[in-house]
Amino acid sequence: MSAAMSVSRLQSSAVDPTRAARRSGSHWRTLLICSDESGAVAFIFALTATVVIAGLGLGIDVGVWHRTDRNLQNGADAAAVAAARNGTSSYQSEAKAVAAQYGLVDGSGGVTVTALDNQTCPNGQTNCYSVTIAMSAAPQFFSQVIGIPAPPMSSSAMAGGGQTHSYCLLALGSSGTDPALTTNGAPKADLSGCSVMSNTSADCHGHNLKADNGDAHKTDSGCGVTQNSNVAQVADPYKSLASNIPTDPCGGLYPQEPTKKSGSPLPPLNTWGSAGVTTAMALPYPPSTANHGIVCGDLQLLGDVTLTTASPGSLLVIVNGQLDTNGKTLKTVAGSALTIIFTGTAGSYTHAPTGSGTLDFPAPTSGTWSGVAIYQDPSLTSGTDISAAGNSPTWDITGLVYLPHASVTFSGAVNKSSNGASCFALVADNITINGTGDILAKGGCAAAGLNLPTNTVGTVALVQ
Questions:
Q1: Would you call 152 helix, strand, or coil by DSSP?
Q2: For residue range 388-424, what is the model confidence (pLDDT) as tens digits?
Q3: In terms of domains, do 140 and 173 share one?
Q4: Is 0.85 topped by the overall pTM?
Q5: Is the domain of 269 the same as that of 209?
Q6: By CB count within 10 A, which of 216, 372, 434, 446 is most buried?
Q7: In this structure, is residue 191 part of a structural domain?
Q8: DSSP for 216-275?
Q9: Which residue range(s) make up the domain with 132?
């Protein structure tokens, strides 16, 4: 082969520079186009993913908000029913306690629970209870990322249907006595304007006491103008006051009245007044006893005694002893008030007023012992009975007589004190009213500073 031919073949087999350049440009154009398309797809995917994730997050929050709304409504419903069933001055605390069971604690986490009584019911009556539970901002997780604020939420409910009864007589029946309220003909008793309640049964023979309502946890037979059986029991509303009874300073010494003439007489601090005269005195007595008149053992009146202690009142605390009126009168002057407390320990002591005299005083109208005239320590379970209340001694009393473990028999009259409102209430274990029983002091308990025991009778239900 000639050299010229070899050169020609080599030239013909060499790459055409122009063609190579065209091929290279086409290749890079293809790469650029693919790169542009991939970037657009990535951008669209990122945008779509963001929208999808935001939508999912918002959907989760909306679901949480829906569950929160249902919980708010359930809490409001339950709290409204609880407030209506409570029917007392503590209905707001009751409603808030029930709401807290749903995790809705008033004043915590932006939650407010508002309970109102005396609301207008759909039927036009004004004895309904409403509860509104509000949350300043609903729980929020994902929606805040996309700038959506958490909405405030609230739910309301109204309940009613039951009637609130206020009781002048409440038989606790804690001893199991059944019936705990009994009358043996009581034509003089007039309890119109208030009601009576037994935590067991109530059985009135011959007279209904003229009480607006006679209620009983078991069966009410003849008590009250309107008679209601199968009523919820009433918890002791005054038991907690015992924590305010002063500490016993007596050192175990409790002088008792002699049972025989030859017995040792009571010490001077255990007798008040002088025969034939009216003694004016102020509590505390003796003056060295700070803030309280505390008597260790029996207290006997030797003459009429008028207490001059200024309002709101004072305490006469008798530790392991009785108050023997001894045919005399213990009273207060106008503007003064008194609470008599019987306390102490178990034993053979008598913890009650006795004698054929007169108790004439109103309870204080404010302070710890507001509305309480006589109070037996609920820890006392013996020596508490009163077998002739109303005439041994005569009771001219304004306020509450609280005898939680006593069997009380009424055979006399109960009237208001000379200087107090017309209000009398008795809480005892069991109560018997005989034919001459006459209870007239009623209707003025608000002025007397006493919140009567109450109960809600009838079916309570949501009305709105």
A1: coil
A2: 776 778 899 999 999 999 999 988 778 889 998 999 9
A3: no
A4: no
A5: yes
A6: 216
A7: yes
A8: ESS-EES-SSEEE-SPPP---SSGGGGGGSPPP-STT------SSTTSPPPPGGGEES-T
A9: 41-160
